[in-house]
Design brief:
The chain is mainly beta. The chain folds into two domains: 202 residues, Coagulation Factor XIII, Chain A, domain 1 (Distorted Sandwich), CATH 2.70.50.70; 35 residues, no CATH class. It contains two helices and twelve strands. The strands form three sheets. A six-stranded mixed β-sheet has the order 2-8-7-4-5-9. A three-stranded antiparallel β-sheet has the order 1-3-6, with no helix packed on it. Strands 10-12-11 form a three-stranded antiparallel β-sheet, with no helix packed on it. The protein is globular and about 60 Å long. The two termini are 39 Å apart. Bound molecules: copper (II) ion (CU). The site of copper (II) ion has 6 residues, from loops.
Length: 335
């Protein structure tokens, strides 16, 4: 039947564009060390609660509830998920399920959070520090696709800093699709492995954030446009911790409205490093400095290239730049 062929085609296409993480590369089977999830469609993204209802997937939100920690229902799998022993200094890489690839433009991030005792009983409500991030690897590539470091890849990995204290941790990978950030609808894909770090050091990981809380819908990344060529991208979340005791102070959350020439506090030099320039990701161009956002959609109307109308669309039907052009009954865009 014609309809079922169409349905199959859609599923296959969505599965390769959307993704969830299920295995630790080189270690075990699907969901052996990675917490399984309970969402009906495992590969669907997590979005902001402020997004149009029609667009929200499975009641998973970046800004409320706990799905942004390790994905929907992941904590219910904690007890049956095994704990992978790794040495500080080792690289841990999580792979996406069912042979999919991360075919969305956007940053990759890896965070860790220490369990108070066994990670099998830890809900991830504690402090998280970032150990890896990447974003744009080619300023001349297709900014809607291959210019992004992780575009088309099937895994995200990070080296456990040597200074990481021994103990059990959640190892959280995240990819954020920013292809719809121009309409404030970034897509978050997250997954957590349970690991036990041995041979570590006595560093103080930081700055730290919490989930939810690390990201806001008003952050740069959530209001960014990949259209019209390269522009500097500010990676959300805190600065990457590479060792030592850069923690302590306030979490360097992504305060998009304050390009504050923050007087570098002499007492915490590492914490004042710009979040956007990943020291670990050597491939990232220096251009990714926290420059002034080139796009500042005004409160009321949609920004250039933003959606400004269409059936089920609940946003503002006006443009702060350009004119609203209808492409079909479901989509109008400011051009
Ligand atoms: Cu998507």
């Amino acid at each position: 039947m014609k309809a079922s062929f169409a349905a199959i085609a859609v599923v296959a296409q969505v599965a390769s564009a959307h993704y969830s993480f299920d295995t630790v590369v080189g270690n075990g089977r699907s969901y052996q060390y990675v917490r399984d999830l309970t969402r009906p469609t495992k590969y669907n993204p997590i979005k902001y609660s402020t997004n149009p209802t029609a667009d929200i997937r499975d009641n998973s939100f970046v800004d409320k509830g706990t799905d942004i920690v390790c994905n929907q229902g992941a904590f219910s799998a904690a007890g049956k998920t095994e704990v992978l022993e790794v040495k500080a200094g080792d690289k841990v890489t999580l792979k996406v399920a069912v042979g999919a690839k991360m075919e969305h433009p956007g940053p990759s991030l890896v965070y860790m959070s220490k369990a108070p005792s066994s990670v099998k009983t830890y809900d991830g409500s504690g402090e998280w520090f970032k150990i890896f991030e990447d974003a744009v690897c080619s300023t001349s590539g297709d900014f809607t696709k291959g210019a992004w470091c992780s575009y088309g890849k099937d895994s995200i990995g990070a080296t456990i800093p040597k200074d990481t204290p021994d103990g059990e941790y959640l190892f959280r990978v995240e990819h954020i699709g920013v292809h719809r950030s121009h309409v404030n609808q970034p897509e978050h894909y997250v997954g957590c492995a349970q690991i036990k770090v041995t041979g570590g050091g006595s560093g103080t990981p930081g700055p730290t954030v919490k989930f939810p809380g690390a990201y806001k819908s008003t952050d740069d990344y959530a209001n960014f446009s990949i259209y019209n060529g390269f522009k500097a991208f500010k990676i959300p979340g805190p600065a990457v911790w590479t060792g030592g005791s850069s923690g302590g102070g306030a979490a360097v959350a992504d305060e998009e409205t304050t390009p504050a020439p923050a007087a570098p506090s002499a007492s915490a030099p590492a914490a004042s490093a710009p979040a956007a320039s990943a020291p670990a990701a050597s491939a990232a161009p220096p251009a990714a400095a926290p420059a002034a956002p080139s796009q500042a959609p005004d409160a009321g109307c949609a920004a250039l290239y933003g959606q400004c109308g269409g059936k089920n669309f609940k946003g503002a039907v006006c443009c702060s730049a350009g004119a609203c052009k209808a492409f079909n009954p479901y989509y109008s865009q400011c051009l």
